[in-house]
Amino acid sequence: MTASDTAPLMIRMEAVDKHFGQLHVLKDVNLQVPKGQVVVVLGPSGSGKSTLCRAINRLEPIDSGVIEIDGKPLPAEGKELARLRAEVGMVFQSFNLFAHKTIAENVLLAPVKVRKQPVAEARKTAMELLERVGIANQAQKYPAQLSGGQQQRAAIARALAMRPKVMLFDEPTSALDPEMVQEVLDVMTTLASEGMTMLVVTHEMGFARKAANRVIFMSDGEIVEDSAPDEFFTAPKSGRAKDFLGKILTH
Amino acid sequence: MDVIFDNFSLYRDGFLQTLRICALAVIGSLILGTVIAGFRVSPVPPLRWVGTSWVNVFRNCPLTVVLFFCAFGLPEIGVNGAYFWFGITGLVLYTSAFVCEAIRSGINSVPPGQAEAARAVGLTFGQSLSTVVLPQALRTVVPPLGSVLIAMIKNSAIVGAFGVGGDLFAVGDTLTSARGEAALPVLIGVVLGYLLITIPAGVLLGWLERKVAIAR
Fold it and tell me: Would you say residue A24 lies in a domain?
């Protein structure tokens, strides 16, 4: 696909297992994402794809196995983990912008608090990022005053402000009204074309075809398929993937 | 009612002593209660255990017993000091458990996504609590916290009885028991003194509630 076959690994998961009570949500998951690669994770709801995404920055702790970011294993809870999370951008389905802070403050909070940047400098960077995602004119508003699409673009800017090595997207467009999906996908597509390493959990097949280097298909907590987008959409190997594609591509 | 005016300076000193006890105990219990609430929601299990035990002990013991421990128990284990500070300590320990629970309910009212996003951008647990979660918890915390603090102001009367002395309630005691004044007018004076603290406190809390409510 790309030069990424020889690039060093950004994400490595080995033999990862996780349970929610009786439910085995991640079953012996092995995944390697080289630097610069854009990976789309597909699968029916309840297949464990969100958990996979959230496990990578330890928002969900795992039961067993190894997760490494850029060659370093995930530390346990504490300052080390906070430092690692600062380098991993995360975008949530429900945006999760800080409700009591303006859009600009949302973007500059972590650079100031975590990276100890001077406020003026962080504000300048924040405005540049908001410009880049097309909502610089909303900077002084509070999250609740913005549309869903604008909030999600602000959330992407907030993650980018930390200059992350890798970006995780957990169903970034699933909570959006249909007319706002494209504006968020456009920002993500641009990001992908600039060489950002991305892991995207989504139901947007158009994005998967256009921007992804690779498609992971999950079902019942397992990675069932791992292939190039064209290959996955035109010739899925497993029955479960065929069944899934049959359900979503007919309408 | 002449007794109130005849002993005005006694009442005034009692009022000021009660105010002093309350001000110190409010500050102490707010700080301690917030720290214990932080323990109770911490990702570190031993801290959670300490927080839970703290609340279980101090919320479930009568204030009088806690004060007995402070005033008479602490000197036995070699802690020496003025009864005034033992009394304040007891009131702070007892009230901190209630403050903790009021703050924890506020923390729980903040959507979990807020704390997740804070952690995801690299804030430590303490930073996420102080810059993201607690400011948003404040608006739901003010009414229950107000009730806790007003109850504490009233509890300060018990503190006065533990050798601290000189507070409003002690003034009432002095006038009725030692000087044999009629109880009713004396106590009316005492009640007025407490209302002079609690009613403005309620007004202040109402104002604070409206102020933090629009801070969105």
Answer: yes
| Domain contains A106 | no
Residue of A216, A148, A230 whose CA lies nearest to A182 = A148
Chain B environment of A100 (Cβ under 8 Å): 135-136, 215-216
Interface with B, mutate which of A113, A125, A129, A166 (most B CBs under 10 A): A113
- In the block, residue with structure tokens 């921007």: A211
Domain contains A122: no
The pLDDT confidence band at residue B214, using thresholds 50, 70 and 90, is low
* Fold of the CATH domain B2-215: MetI-like fold (1.10.3720)
Q: What is the per-residue pLDDT across A113-167, written as a single tens digit (0 to 9) for each?
A: 999 999 999 999 999 999 999 999 999 999 999 999 999 999 999 999 999 999 9
Structurally, chain A folds into a number of domains equal to: 1
CB atoms A113 and B119 under 8 Å: no
Residues facing residue A215 across a β-bridge: A40, A227
What does the DSSP assignment read for A54-90?
HHHTTSS--SEEEEEETTEEPP-TTHHHHHHHHTEEE
Q: Is A13 domain-assigned?
A: yes
Domain of residue A24: give its range.
Answer: 9-96+168-249
ipTM (interface predicted TM): 0.90
pTM of the model: 0.85
